[in-house]
Amino acid sequence: MNWDDIRIFLAVARSGQILGAARRLGLNHTTVARRLTALETALSTTLLTRRTNGSTLTQAGEEFLLAAERMEAEMLAARSQVGNADIAVSGTVRIGAPDGFGVNFLAPRLAR
């Protein structure tokens, strides 16, 4: 099972449409459909009922959605904890500007 496939499933479940999820994710709709099929194959179950006017979750899809949302929440929490541990902002900022703009506009605002 691939995390990217789960992300795609979440997007489709939330939007109700493969095309809407594809637009949100910046993917081709055929790629989204193919990845959903791969996820369903990996799970040996059907998660979505596909129709021309959108997709609806099956009972298995509803159950998997709850698990996928928990996985997503844990992933975001882990990224937040680990990602912020060693971040410290430091350094010099250089601003290039024409003399009139720098003296009359920037300098008074940077002094605050």
TrEMBL record:
GO terms for molecular function: DNA binding; DNA-binding transcription factor activity. The keyword Repeat does not apply. Keywords: DNA-binding, Transcription, Transcription regulation. InterPro entries: LTTR, LysR_HTH_N, WH-like_DNA-bd_sf, WH_DNA-bd_sf. Residues 1-58 form the HTH lysR-type domain. Gene3D superfamilies: Winged helix-like DNA-binding domain superfamily/Winged helix DNA-binding domain. The keyword Cell division does not apply. Belongs to the LysR transcriptional regulatory family. This is LysR family transcriptional regulator.
